[in-house]
Amino acid sequence: MILFRVHALSEFDYIIINTGPHWHPNLHWGPNQSELELLTAFKGAMSAVFDYLKRHTKQHQRVWIRTTPYGHATCSQFKEPQQNPIAPSRQPGEYEWHLFQKFDLIWKELLLHEQDDSRFGVFDISVMSNQRGDAHSKPNRDCLHTCIPGPVDDWNRLLYSEIMKEII
Asked: What is the pTM of this model?
């Protein structure tokens, strides 16, 4: 189930959306036969979300779709950022990390059709965050979420930069 707080949309000038890590094979999305089924359900749901946003986002508001960095299997092995990160290999314990890039691509394709609409954009933090196998909050228990301070602080600095570009 997607929890989208539509009642609060008008309260914010800057909105960031990300849903990728919360999509897993589940009977909610269909008979649970294939990844294609999951991707089709994701595209349908995100199309509905985006259609809602297009109708209800005001001209002064800015919405970014944040990309989804993948986790790092056995993340305790990483002691520093990697120049060439190891992509998910579909092993047990990696959940659907290998699909995150496909989820991001679905959003990018939706946004491509609205590229002249300045209200919407992609906030791409995956490339830099995928290099941070060393920054997970609970090594080998949670190899998806990251520590604070850590990459999320960099995301905030980048977001601040994006907002300042709009203001200046």
From this structure: 0.89
